[in-house]
Design goal:
The protein has a seven-stranded mixed beta sheet, with helices on both faces. Strands 3-4-5-6 form a four-stranded antiparallel beta sheet, with no helix packed on it. The chain has a two-stranded antiparallel sheet with strand order 1-2. The radius of gyration is 18 Å and the shape is globular. Helix content is 31%, strand content 29%. By secondary structure, it is an alpha/beta fold.
Length: 287
């Protein structure tokens, strides 16, 4: 349907941003959340869940590339990957660009998000859901982590903000379950918000991660859609060396993965730079 109006993001209490919606393509409430999809002249198709911007087709590559390639290339031999959330399929798309990945399990609480994304945003997943290495599990992510006996090299928590059904994915108990489900040299990645606005979220997440992991940090990326400053992606591992892979090693792995000239944001030198934090963000991580 056509409805030229403004769509406001209502995630924050003290300010709002809004997109011009030249065409509202979808607006409905599922069992778990409200989905709105609309067209914007600058950002292309924009997806909002419960009033919070999730992705746009213009800049989604920034978040998805940094979520996937950073831990996989830091690890070096990651074969078994788990994604919690990420029903749009963007992180899965980037993970599966690595031929060395043998198995990808994705746990999504809302099957309607997957169906919706496949129908209205097929370019985001780009066939990832049909890849024979991909296994989709429709389940509560926290319960899956508490019960699974599988072990993974990398776990990526591509969640919405810590409100509603995603709140349980930002707890010390959940992170402890993630540590149990990781192999000894595994890496956990989390969505940790925009530190300038959501500093408490990053600080609390780092504190809870330190209860289970020896090396806790975050790395940054700039996603135009997520206003308020750089976005933080949480990092946790028991192997500090994963966070300090030499540039020449990253470059070799990047080339071997066939990614040279194909990524639009991720690059080996940017990988290293992303872990350099401004003092105000470093203080939040260190506590």
């Amino acid at each position: 349907m056509t409805d030229k109006a403004w769509q406001a993001e209502t995630l924050h209490d003290d300010f709002q941003t809004a997109f011009l919606a030249t065409d509202v393509l979808y607006d409905t409430a599922t069992e778990h959340q409200r989905l709105v999809l609309f067209e914007n002249p600058t950002y292309g198709r924009v997806l909002m869940l419960d009033g919070a911007t999730q992705l746009t087709t213009a800049d989604e590559f920034v978040y998805h590339e940094m979520m996937a390639h950073t831990p996989i290339l830091a690890h070096g031999v990651a074969k078994d990957i788990l994604i919690v959330g990420g029903g749009d399929g963007g992180v899965a798309r980037e993970v599966l660009r690595h031929s060395t990945v043998e198995r990808l399990v994705q746990v999504e609480i809302d099957d309607s998000v997957v169906a919706f994304s496949r129908q209205y945003l097929p370019e985001i997943s780009a066939g990832a859901f049909d890849d024979p290495r991909h296994e989709l599990v429709i389940a509560d992510g926290a319960r899956f982590m508490a019960e699974t006996e599988r072990r993974f090299d990398v776990i990526i928590v591509d969640s919405t903000d810590p409100i509603g059904p995603a709140q349980v994915l930002f707890t010390e108990a959940f992170y402890a379950d993630c540590r149990r489900a990781l192999k000894e040299d595994g890496i956990l990645i989390t969505q940790s918000g925009v530190p300038f606005i959501q500093g408490e979220e990053l600080e609390a997440g780092a504190r809870d991660l330190r209860a289970s992991f020896a090396d806790v940090w975050c790395y940054l990326c700039t996603v135009p859609t997520y206003v308020g400053g750089e976005m933080a992606l949480g990092w946790a591992s028991d192997q500090p060396a994963h966070r300090r892979v030499p540039l020449e090693v990253l470059e070799v792995r990047y080339e071997a993965a066939g990614l040279v000239g194909k990524t639009r944001y991720y690059a080996p030198d940017l990988h290293q730079a992303a872990f350099v934090l401004p003092p105000y963000i470093k203080r939040l991580v260190i506590g």
